[in-house]
């Protein structure tokens, strides 16, 4: 960790999660003196109670950003390329039998470019590699064990007091401190939250049949069962799984003994990969849509989960967060003198609000249709899948929307 005594920075990032670390790296690599603070030390193993067992599929724009700021070479050895996306629509089987497949479609990444459409990483692995790489980027200081406490702003700068009593000055303060962001709250920005009564399980599983670097989403009531390719584990094919369900059933699955859980998830996977076996702990997360009322206030920009939380569908969560960062960084680079000023933050808020609102509406509607037990909505789901895939202009538009701002 770099040691600096000067208490004045260009950018102060509150939050040391994946988005916060990448934000610090990006601003530092662009020449801005940057400090990142977080009250907790990073969890960089997969076997602690607080380990993040989810995975993230970074799409091409994210990879391009990582290359530009010099962290892709560190991350790439831990990536599993995603060549295609397979969507499988199912209905429950009878008497515990595997699900009945109604139809399936496959979206090829190379239809929109001569490379994979994304690269998958386990979240705790990303944090480990970023924690190693970011301190070596010029102009970046990381302080763990100390967090944001209070904020005072004026037109020329922000003054931030940390939990250790230190007071710092910054031209731009970035709230990347999660869905319960203390910095967002201190800036007087509220949120609107939609709850679905759903929770998702996140874990890693091995399986008998190979995934061929194809990400698979299996639709059924309760929500999708998503299998995203990982590298082999002890010679066995492996995938990161996100399994959405009604809250009580998700909790039941969380506490189910391993043998019963293996049998249940094998059935839920429609037998597409043979027998599935749990290869990690199980994490559980509430499914919500949460949107900040505003994306900026004086000298403060709100990004990532401090700005928006979306259901885990279509790799929109962290990729949308990186779109926030890319826009904020571009504005800063285009006018370094105006860093953190009213014009910059108004432009950021206007551009990102439009994109975030559009994505949130699509993901919300999609989640409601996919999880529904209603026969009419099941029919809509089936027809919609066929239309999106089989009509080439529609298919291309949907894939382009997933690979960049709408």
Folded structure, characterized:
It is a single chain. By secondary structure, this protein is an alpha+beta fold. The protein folds into 2 domains: about 10-75 and about 120-190 and about 290-370, FAD/NAD(P)-binding domain (3-Layer(bba) Sandwich), CATH 3.50.50; about 80-120 and about 195-285 and about 370-400, D-Amino Acid Oxidase, subunit A, domain 2 (D-Amino Acid Oxidase, Chain A, domain 2, 2-Layer Sandwich), CATH 3.30.9.10. It is about 35% helix and about 30% strand. The protein contains 12 helices and 20 strands. The protein has helices at about 20-30, 60-70, 70-75, 125-135, 180-185, 245-255, 260-270, 305, 315-335, 340-370, 375-390, 390-400, and strands at about 10-15, 35-40, 55-60, 80, 85-90, 100-110, 120, 140-145, 150-155, 160, 165-175, 190-205, 215-220, 225-235, 235-245, 275-280, 285-290, 295, 300, 310. Strands 5, 6, 12, 13, 14, 15, 16, 17 and 20 form a 9-stranded mixed beta sheet that branches. Strands 1, 2, 8, 9, 10, 11, 18 and 19 form an 8-stranded mixed beta sheet that branches. Strands 3-7-4 form a 3-stranded antiparallel beta sheet. A hairpin with an 8-residue loop joins strand 5 and strand 6 (about 100-110). Helix 1 crosses helix 2 and helix 9 (about 315-335) runs antiparallel to helix 10 (about 340-370). The longest helix is centred in the last third of the chain and has 30 residues, at about 340-370. The protein is elongated. It starts with 7 loop residues before the first strand and ends with a helix. Mean pLDDT is about 85; it is low at about 1-5 and about 395-405.
């Amino acid at each position: 960790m770099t040691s600096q005594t000067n208490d004045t920075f260009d950018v102060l990032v509150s939050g040391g999660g994946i988005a916060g670390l990448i934000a610090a790296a990006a601003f530092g690599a662009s020449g801005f003196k940057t400090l990142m603070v977080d009250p907790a030390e990073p969890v960089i193993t997969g076997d602690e109670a607080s380990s993040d067992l989810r995975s993230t599929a970074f799409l091409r724009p994210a990879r391009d950003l990582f290359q530009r700021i010099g962290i892709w070479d560190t991350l790439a050895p831990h990536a599993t390329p995603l060549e295609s996306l397979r969507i499988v629509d199912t209905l429950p089987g009878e008497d515990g039998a595997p699900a009945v497949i109604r139809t399936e479609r496959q979206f090829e990444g190379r239809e929109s470019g001569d490379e994979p459409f994304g690269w998958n990483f386990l979240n705790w692995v990303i944090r480990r590699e970023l924690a190693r790489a970011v301190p070596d980027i010029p102009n970046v200081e990381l302080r763990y064990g100390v967090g944001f406490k209070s904020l005072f702003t004026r037109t020329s700068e922000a003054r931030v007091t940390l939990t250790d009593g230190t007071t710092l000055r910054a031209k731009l303060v970035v709230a990347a401190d999660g869905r319960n962001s203390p910095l967002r709250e201190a800036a007087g920005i509220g949120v609107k939250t939609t709850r679905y009564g759903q929770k998702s399980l996140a874990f890693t599983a091995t399986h008998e049949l190979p995934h061929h670097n194809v990400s698979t989403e299996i639709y059924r009531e309760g929500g999708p069962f998503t299998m995203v390719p990982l590298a082999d584990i002890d010679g066995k094919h492996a995938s990161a799984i996100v399994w959405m369900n009604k809250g009580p059933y998700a909790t039941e699955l969380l506490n189910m003994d391993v043998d019963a859980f293996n049998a249940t998830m094998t059935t839920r996977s429609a037998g597409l990969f043979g027998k599935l076996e749990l290869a990690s702990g199980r994490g559980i997360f509430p499914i919500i849509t949460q949107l900040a009322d505003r994306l900026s206030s004086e000298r403060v920009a709100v990004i990532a989960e401090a700005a928006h939380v979306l259901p885990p569908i279509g790799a929109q969560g962290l990729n949308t967060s990186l779109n926030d960062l890319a826009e904020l960084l571009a504005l800063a680079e285009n006018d370094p003198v105006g860093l953190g000023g009213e014009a910059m933050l108004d432009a950021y808020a206007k551009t990102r609000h439009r994109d975030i609102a559009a994505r949130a509406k699509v993901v919300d509607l999609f989640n409601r249709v996919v999880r529904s037990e209603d026969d009419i909505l099941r029919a809509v789901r089936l027809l919609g899948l066929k239309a999106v895939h089989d009509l080439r202009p529609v298919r291309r538009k949907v894939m382009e929307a997933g690979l960049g701002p709408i």
